[in-house]
Every structure is written in structure tokens, then in C-alpha cells.
Amino acid sequence: MAARKIVIDCDPGQDDAIAILMALASPDRLEVAAITTVAGNVPLALTEKNARALVELAGRDDVPVHIGCSRPMLRPLETAEYVHGETGLNGANLAEPRIAPAPGHAVDAILGILAREPEGSVTLVPTGPLTNVALAMVKAPEVMARAAQIVLMGGAVDLGNVTPAAEFNIYVDPHAAHVVFGFGLPITMFGLDVTHKVTVTDARLEAIRAIDTPAGRAAYGMLEFYNRYDRQRYDTEGGPLHDPCTIAWLLEPALFEGRDCFVEIDTTSPTCIGRTVVDWWRRSDHPPNATVMREADADGFFRLLNDCLKRL
Ligand code: BDR
Ligand code: CA
Prior knowledge:
Strand content: 15-25%
Bound molecules: beta-D-ribofuranose, calcium ion
Oligomer: single chain
Radius of gyration: 18 Å
CATH architecture: Alpha-Beta Complex
CATH topology: Inosine-uridine Nucleoside N-ribohydrolase, Chain A
Largest sheet: 8 strands, mixed
């Protein structure tokens, strides 16, 4: 079977970084047509630089990295250095990237790929705020409708992680999320309910430490740093590997379970803005607009992750 074409739209971020490395380690299954970057975990100047450093780490500087939106559609940018460190990739110790950003704005790069590839052949994988994806939908809806699907990290059925109600990616740009969830493409949503089941425990971190490849060493450093915040905040055994769930599902869908639901984004409430209101029990008449994942085989996930890191 030919590799599935994907575009990763991201804001690296240690967990975005692990998602990128897993995808780049799997060229027989996933062809990364481009990485597009957005402001989120840290400002855009850092997310795009981090993405370039990551493709170099993976020895894949043939993958274009495009610079996208520097702020959400309506709201001021809120970042998450308190989780990821001031660089976004604290712990990775990556060299300054040598490759330049690819020419063209991320929104145009996404549209260009969808316009030139066969209809229904490109999967979009957003792992940051949805600003670029939403603006592409506003700019050229007929081109965006050519995408096969959207596989995203964002939202939650249950509690939020930035506010009691909202998860970071959706909270940062709820208006963009509103556009994306209302657009009509098939969506697979990895929210906090499922990503908090994929945690970097001590034993899993030690297994990664033993992977003596450049990517293995960087992954260990990043996750060792990344684990600190979540352990303290949530009193769990380790940090949740949010973003890589998207790539893991594309590689091994049997690792996850979910249900088709209607998901609505709160864009108005002072206390709940950015909440993904998930109709898990089908209480409304709205037809489902997303497959919402809630269960994960965490051991299976880490087996897959380790196999990927050993190949880089
Ligand atoms: C999401 O927010 C960011 O901190 C992570 O990279 C992930 O995409 C989790 O809420
Ligand atoms: Ca992210």
C-alpha cells in the first residue's frame, strides 16, 4: 500500500516534536508532504524554528517547513512556556537549524498541496491551535474540501487543562476551531480524555533513554523536561503525550477507541470559551461531525514510539 500523504500543522512543543519524529520515521506508511507552523505553545518565530530543527534531527531536510499564522483569529495569543520551557523544546538540545523555511505562507502551502494532489488523498494533522487550517477553509473552501480527513489533537469530553472547561489548542483559537468543526470534513479528535491515558511513566522514560540514536537522545531530553509540569499539576505518573496520538492512530488505528459525536465549540461564554461540548450520549439532533477518541492502549503506543525512535 502506498504511503498516506499528510500535512502536520503544529506548534512544537515537545509533544508535537514526538509526533513529527514518529511520522518522519515511518516513510513507508506516512509521506509528510509539509510541516506547517502556527503560534501556540510558544510564539511563531520559535515554533517554525523548532520544526526546522526537528526535520534536520530526523535527517529529513527534504520536508518543507512553512511559516503560518502568528496569532489567533480574534483573541490575543496565549502561550504555554510554563509547560514547554521558553524555547518550546527545552530538553532537546538541538542545533540551530541550517535549512531555511520553505517559501510561501502555511495557509497557501496547505491549499497548494490539496490542489495538486488527487482529491481525498491528503490527511491534515493539526496538533496546535487551528488558525492556519481555519484560514485555509475561509480562503478556499472548495480546495480544502479535497482533503481526506482531519486528525487533530484538541479539546476534551471531560475537563480542560487551561481553564476548568477548555483544552489549550482549542482555547487559544476557539473561533478557528468553530470554523474547522463546522466545515464538514471528517474529523478524528484526540482530546485530553484519551491523551491523559498515554503517560510517560518512569519505566517508559527509561526505555526511551536506552535508545541510542540522535532522535532517541533528543526524545529522552525533551520528555524528561516535559514530564515535570504535568506530574506536578495532575499528580500523575508522567506527562500525557497528547499530539503523538494522532500519528500513532494513523499508523495503528487499533490502539484507540472512540465514538462518532457532534462537537460544538463554545466561543462566547466568559467561563467556558474554548470548550468542546461533546454530545457523547447523543442528546441533540445534530448529526455527528467528529469521531471522538477516549480509550488508548498505552503500552502499545509506547512500543510503536520506541520502534519509530530506533529507526531515526
Ligand atoms: C496541547 O497543548 C499543547 O501544550 C500541546 O502541544 C498539545 O498540542 C495539549 O493541550
Ligand atoms: Ca501542540
